[in-house]
Amino acid sequence: MSAQAIVPDTAAATEAVPRHYDIRDFFQNPKRSGFRLSDHGRLIGFMEPAQIDGQPARQNIFVQALKGSEPVGEPRRITSESQRDIAQYFWKGDDTVLYAKDVNGDENYHVIAVNVSTGKATDLTPLAGVRADVQDDLPDDPDHVLIAHNGRNPEVFDIYKVNVHTGHSALAAQNPGDVLGWSTDHQGQVRLATASVGVDTELRYRASADEPFRSLIRTDFRTEVSPLFFHADNRRFYALSNRGRDTQALVLIDPDTPDLEERIYELPEHDLMGAGFSRLRKVLTSADFHTDKPGHHFFDPVSAKIHEAIARQLPGYEVTWQDITRDEKKFIVASYNDRTSGSRYLYDADSNTLHKLADINTALPESDMAPMQPIQFKARDGLTIHGYLTLPQGRPAQNLPVVINPHGGPWARDYWGFNPEVQFLANRGYAVLQINFRSSTGYGRHFWEAGFGQWGLAMQDDITDGVHWLIDQKIADPKRVAIYGASYGGYATLAGIVKTPQLYAAAVDYVGVSNLLTFMNTIPPYWKPFLLKMHAMVGDPVKDKARLEANSPALHADKIVTPLFIAQGAHDPRVNKAESDQMVQALQERGVQVQYMVKDNEGHGFLNDENKFEFYEQMEQFLAQHLKPSLP
User: What is the residue-wise DSSP string for 527-538?
Assistant: First the structure.
């Protein structure tokens, strides 16, 4: 490995050591969050914990009247969920709210419609064992939405037009068996379908809902053409595409000449993440990206002016729009940075005024949180690896206990911003290193493909090289390094203590994969259309069996000497509980004790407050026992 030196931000060492904040201060649900505006701005919704039927408080939806740019009157609770938090919701017009709910984290989401006047709740997808999601809210149709669900065939999703008042459902687009995703035009007609054909991806198009789909673009799955939304002419469409380039650019595609992309905007070393469109003014507004930090490029002077006006009033914070009324006069604005989850505001474009709605977490002063520094180093094969380093406040950046925190996915990445896990660990005296190892997304196709077939191999080497880089920088105490990750990060945790057993003093695996063969045999049915692509990216259970076995931690438990703590949700549909069970069993058969937490009302990660608190309390004790951080 070739080390590339950085100069750590030593400001953390010159500030006072912050006080020891309670675990609940980091992980409890906000007192008020999730603000959303009704279509015409007459009402505002938000989520707030509510205790119902003697159960622990869960996030429920409240509504309140708006007068100008301020909420008025008493809020009314319109939902009564007592088993799990409501994670997200949105308005349909001014009189209906839609939200999703599952059971015990099984991710078989039902779509529920609530009349905000009467409180009547209607399950729009009353089907057992079915996963549903809203495809299009049909803003110009007051009575219907488009919902995708796999009720007819567990492996694929059809589109249904559903009445939000009665629940009546009619098939709008039937999946032929290979469609992975659908896209609608500005009239809510299903016009694009993305299909998986072996290891190829095919984009299909039709000019109207009355016509059959035809093949428009077919590529190897490594080449991505991902539709975003239609142009104002409702014929051409915008997409993110890496055809003929390494990074995903914003392009405009004419279905009459689909191979001639009109390139709108791109970055040389990073993929774009998305784009914005004004339904009111029918113009492209922005492109969104994340290099070391988040950024936007504006095409539309109106949007640029509004963003600039808001940012000028909130210096030192990133600002994003979380919701907007149909007349584009009122906005829900989020402000945040790496040291605070920030505040939420109601912005009035006519008066250029911000009304604060809530601070998301008042328990954690921004001044006591730790800055997140972008870093980079060279892997052993010369590939540049990016990531983030967070140093504990008030402690010299030398010989620190460290937690290596690989992200999940693995086709995802870590981002700059407020991260409660990172801040919790920094508050306890640990430096935290997050590594965007090869195959992380956002850094172009070459970087993504560099991780194909490399679970436990080069992807793991990148994490190992990051540890050694931190040791070479004299920041990490080599005897006090732990690794903690969830999902793929859990796999990387297990692979790390198998492949480099002397490197880590402690390890925490949270809903992680332990056996690559059994993992791919227990995926949810709606992942089946991706299976050939997963074989190409991870490994074929037949052709690559020897490699997959060699890099399955559960099959090499005899190499583990690192103290290990495992946490798992019993209803996890992505990483089956058997993944954790077999890891624990393999260690126990050797007489090795492993700390194991299973929650019967959780899935892929813990959502309920009481389970989150217990998990982090046990993790804190476990890390303190084995890393012995200095206490304030």
Answer: GGGGHHHHHHHT
Cα separation, 351 vs 514, in Å, equals 56
3-state secondary structure of 312: helix
Identity of residue 541? P
Q: Residue 397: what residue type?
A: A
Q: Give 111-120 contacts, CB < 8 A, sequence gap 24+.
A: 111/145, 111/147, 111/162, 112/79, 113/164, 113/165, 113/167, 114/61, 114/78, 114/79, 115/165, 116/43, 116/63, 116/76, 116/78, 119/78
The residue annotated as part of the active site, out of 487, 514, 552, 580, is: 487
Average pLDDT, the chain: 95
Omega prior to 374 cis, within 30 of 0: no
Choice among 231, 323, 604, 609 that is catalytic: 604
- Give the integer Cα–Cα distance in Å for 239 and 275: 9
In angstroms, rounded to a whole number, what is the distance separating the alpha carbons of residues 31 and 16?
Answer: 29
Catalytic residue among 95, 271, 572, 609: 572
Residue 294 parent element (H or E): strand 294-298
- Contact between 518 and 573 under an 8 Å Cβ cutoff? The reply is no
Residue 177 CA to residue 414 CA, distance in Å, equals: 34
- Find the mean pLDDT for residues 598-618: 97
Q: How many CB atoms lie within 10 A of CB 345?
A: 24
Q: How confident is the model at residue 10 (pLDDT cuts 50, 70, 90)?
A: very low
- One-letter amino acid at 59 equals Q
CB atoms within 10 A of CB 101: 18
* Pairing between β-strand 595-599 and β-strand 564-569 as defined by DSSP bridges: parallel
Give which of 621, 575, 624, 629 is closest to 598, Cα–Cα.
575
Is 386 an annotated catalytic residue? no
**Cα 536 from Cα 513, distance rounded (Å):** 18
Distance CA 324, CA 44 (A): 11
> Residue 495 in contact with residue 552, Cβ under 8 Å?
no
159 Cβ contact list (under 8 Å, min separation 6): 135, 146, 147, 148, 171, 172, 173, 182, 190
Rounded Cα gap, residues 104 and 560, in angstroms: 32
604 as an active site residue: the answer is yes
359 labelled catalytic: no
Handedness of CA 43, 48, 54, 55 (dihedral sign): positive
Three-state secondary-structure class, residue 98: strand
Burial of 540 (0-12, 13-18, 19+ CB in 10 A): middle
pTM as predicted: 0.95
**pLDDT, tens digit (0-9, with 9 covering 90-100), for 309-321:** 999 999 999 999 9
pLDDT in tens, 417-442: 999 999 999 999 999 999 999 999 99
Strands 340-348, 353-359: pairing kind: antiparallel
Q: CA nearest 7: which of 321, 475, 594, 505?
A: 475
How far apart (Å, rounded) are the C-alpha atoms in residues 478 and 470? 9
560 close to 498: Cβ distance less than 8 angstroms? yes
Residue 368 makes CB contacts below 8 A (sequence gap 6+) with 18, 19, 21, 393, 427
Number of H helices, E strands in the chain: 12, 35
Cβ(217)–Cβ(257) below 8 Å: no
What is the C-alpha R_g of the chain?
A: 25
As to burial, measured by CB atoms within 10 angstroms (0-12 exposed, 13-18 middle, 19+ buried), residue 371 is: middle
User: Beta strand 110-115 with 89-92: parallel, antiparallel or unpaired?
Assistant: unpaired
